[in-house]
Amino acid sequence: MTTSKASTTSIAAKYGTARRTVTVHVNERDVTREVSTRTTLADFLRDELGLVSVHLGCEHGECGSCTVLFDGHSVRSCLMLAVQTDGHTVETVESLAGNPAELHPIQEAFAEEQGLQCGFCTPAMVLRTKEIIETGRDRELTDAEVRHEISGILCRCTGYQNIVRAVQSAQRRCRGGGRDA
């Protein structure tokens, strides 16, 4: 059986790639860009906006290192298309850097509790912690509850115990200090 050249031509090459203009609120600013309808949110944030804290590990939604906050909820940005964000809010870990001279309380907690090693999963863990705090937990989570809450993000370095302590410390800091997550 022979295959014609036309049948092996990619659909994108044959028909072109659809593009759409999106306006999304990213890290406290409105951004309008024309994007391919096939562009993932992860690629949009990294390539179009230069937000390199969004790490790509597996690109299949398994590792969670690409986690961002979408309308306040954690999502895997490698599984979401940029066009789905039109009219919505997206936060990356860069959104925590209000004053570059000081760390956000969540970042302080991760540093002091040594909740990181290689740092690849850290932006995702920090954002998941922010979501945990902002969901209005009125008490500190137990170790088991924290492990359950962060179970969608793989860390191959730490064994999680320092991350668990960092999440609990961040809860205390944000709740006790009156500071928003």
Automatic annotation (TrEMBL):
Signal peptide: none annotated. Keywords: 2Fe-2S, Iron, Iron-sulfur, Metal-binding, Oxidoreductase. PROSITE patterns: 2FE2S_FER_1 (PS00197), 2FE2S_FER_2 (PS51085). It is an enzyme of class 1 (oxidoreductase). Its EC number is 1.17.5.2. Pathway: Alkaloid degradation; nicotine degradation. Pfam families: Fer2 (PF00111), Fer2_2 (PF01799). This is Caffeine dehydrogenase subunit gamma. It comes from Streptomyces jeddahensis. The lineage of its organism: Bacteria, Bacillati, Actinomycetota, Actinomycetes, Kitasatosporales. The gene is cdhC.
